[in-house]
Amino acid sequence: MGNNYGELVQRQRDFFLQGKTKDVQFRIDTLELLRKIIQTNEAELMKALKEDLNKSEFDAYLTEIGIVLEEIKFTLKHLRNWAKPRRVKSSMATLGSKSYIYPEPYGIALVISPWNYPFQLAIAPLVGAIAAGNCAILKPSELTPRTSEVLQELVSKNFPEEYIAVVEGGVEASTALLNEKFDYIFFTGSVAVGKVIMEAAAKTLTPVTLELGGKSPCIVHEDANLKLAAKRIAWGKFTNAGQTCVAPDYLYVHTHIKEKFLLVLKETILELYGEDVIKSGQFTKIVSEKHFNRLVSFLSNGNSLFGGKHDLSKLTIEPTIIENIKWEDAVMKEEIFGPILPVMEYDDLKEVVSEINKRPKPLALYLFSENEMTQKKVLNDISFGGGCINDTVYHLSSPYLPFGGVGESGIGAYHGKGSFEVFSHEKSILKQTTKFDLPFRYPTMKNGLKFI
Ligand code: NAD
Fold first, then answer.
1. Which of 16, 88, 373, 410 is most open to solvent, judged by the fewest CB atoms within 10 Å of its CB?
2. Which residues contact 352 (CB under 8 A, 6 or more apart)?
3. Which residues have a catalytic role annotated?
4. CA dihedral 178, 184, 190, 195 (to 10 degrees)
5. How far is the CA of 428 from the centre of ligand 1 (A)?
6. What distance in Å separates the CA atoms of residue 49 and residue 68, rounded to the nearest whole number?
7. Whole-angstrom distance, CA of residue 62 vs CA of residue 71
8. Residues with beta carbon inside 6 Å of ligand 1?
9. Would you say 118 and 147 are in contact if contact means Cβ atoms under 8 Å apart?
10. Over the stretch 152-198, which tens digit does the pLDDT of each residue have?
11. pLDDT tens digit sequence for 229-279
């Protein structure tokens, strides 16, 4: 393909203008083919995820392949309905007319994805782009090269480049692509790069979805079910070695239960991940040496309560809890994105609300509490992308819950119908009657005559 992206985009545009992708049956056939490709190449995808990130088969299926297959299944079930023009009410001012909303594809979509769920975060947006009738170019991450390569092979073997293409490469490839005119850009990645994407998109007024990151708080209130909280937090934090955009970034634990809770949490981590993840080799690795060193530098913050062992040769850091953490510590200054869980404590929920509200709006927030008033207060007083009460991470698995951030954690949301909507323009159409015409909509001429 070289790096003549202009030519590729033009070929996609020519193909799009043929109108084939607008046919709903064509989209359904494409999604069915995509599902088949994923199913028949599951082993190869798992192997690539193992090589890139040491992901276990269990994690690879649960958090990457399975989630995408579910998304395809849900989309196939509803696509005909979503794609239909919808009749809506007409207003008094348009008496006699009928009003409709026609969803239509934007055209050529660019999807740029990160390395942490390199399969899911490239393919889930693609499902939306296909469902809505677009052509698409995917630019997966250079930090998970095996998965990107498999994606490239599978796509190029099964789809014409003028319909769906994968471009491998890093910043240069992204930058070169961003110089082209797309009709939609869907980006998942860091806040800093999100700004670069939006700036590039502004030059051509291209609409964007930005799925970004940030520090997602997890609050454990004094009335929480501690055992369940520990299990759900430990899994949400340490799955994928904490390299999850919606992982609980840090814990805020009520003073009254802090000691007891941390004890249960430690036991739970041992139950879930065993004594020594470095030896067992079953734990997801940190994506690169640079990321590893950044994470290791946080280990000197506060007091180490659990874990802390790390091995550069295996790029592995064990599940770690650090306590006595303050907002001034380095670990609290940026998104952690690794298996290190800082713990802060509080007396009064008001302090927690006030501290969180001083900072960028989180992508996710988790609250563990049995009390409805407490739940209501937190939901009412803090703005964040989405989250769970008494759970972590799972809000993103529901096709009925649009997933995305707010403020610095992102713009727009997808999953389920949301993915179809993201990649569709809603064209509003008024079909006017010709049976009669209302005179009062026209100006009256000075001599009292009407225009018609
Ligand atoms: P990143 O922003 O470094 O990279 C994401 C993509 O952008 C990659 O494909 C990369 O090649 C490309 N890129 C990097 N620099 C670029 C530049 N200057 N110009 C154009 N493109 C560029 O992010 P990452 O390190 O791959 O992923 C981690 C971040 O992504 C974390 O902040 C995490 O929270 C966030 N994230 C968010 C979600 C979500 O759904 N909201 C999901 C996963 C990850």
1. 373
2. 217, 219, 252, 346
3. 211
4. 70
5. 34
6. 15
7. 13
8. 112-116, 121, 139, 141-142, 170-171, 174-175, 188-190, 193, 196, 211-213, 245, 335, 337, 363, 405, 410
9. yes
10. 999 999 999 999 999 999 999 999 999 999 999 999 999 999 999 99
11. 999 999 999 999 999 999 999 999 999 999 999 999 999 999 999 999 999
Which amino acid, one-letter code, is at 8?
L
Instruction: Pull the structure tokens for residue 343.
Output: 């713990």
pLDDT at 1: 47
In which element (H, E) is residue 383 found? none
The C-alpha atoms of residue 370 and residue 348 are separated, in whole angstroms, by 16
User: What DSSP state is assigned to residue 87?
Assistant: E
Ligand 1 atom with the smallest distance to the CA of 189 is 30
End-to-end CA distance of the chain: 60
Q: Which atom of ligand 1 is nearest to the CA of 192?
A: 2
Out of 141, 198, 211, give the residue to mutate to test ligand 1, the one with the largest number of ligand atoms within 8 Å of its CB. 141
Q: Which two tokens stand for residue 156?
A: 């190029």
Closest ligand 1 atom to the C-alpha of 245?
34
Q: Which pair of structure tokens corresponds to residue 73? A: 């299944």
Residue bearing the CA closest to ligand 1, atom 9: 141
| Residue 351 vs residues 253, 258, 347: alpha-carbon distances, Å | 12, 16, 8
Residue ranges of the alpha helices (H) in 112-144?
120-131
Task: Please check whether residue 412 is in contact with residue 386, taking contact to mean a CB–CB distance below 8 angstroms.
Answer: no
Tell the residue nearest (CA) to atom 42 of ligand 1: 245
Confidence at residue 440, expressed as pLDDT on a 0 to 100 scale: 82
- Residue 384: what residue type? F
Residue 450 has a pLDDT of 55
Angstrom distance (rounded) from CA 282 to CA 393: 21
Q: Using DSSP, state whether 369 is helix, strand or coil.
A: coil
Q: How far is the CA of 176 from the centre of ligand 1 (A)?
A: 16
Nearest to residue 314, comparing CAs of 1, 24, 54? 54
H-helix or E-strand spanning residue 15: helix 5-17
pLDDT tens track for 337-369: 999 999 999 999 999 999 999 999 999 999 999
Q: Which of 127, 238, 140, 237 is nearest to 189 (CA)?
A: 140
Question: Who's near 183: CB < 8 A, 6+ residues apart?
Answer: 106, 107, 108, 109, 134, 206, 207
The whole-chain average pLDDT of the chain stands at: 96
Whether the CB-CB separation of 345 and 322 falls below 8 Å is answered with no
- Rounded CA separation 385/407 (Å): 8
Task: Give the three-class secondary structure for 4.
Answer: coil
Q: How many CA atoms lie within 13 A of 324 on its CB side?
A: 8
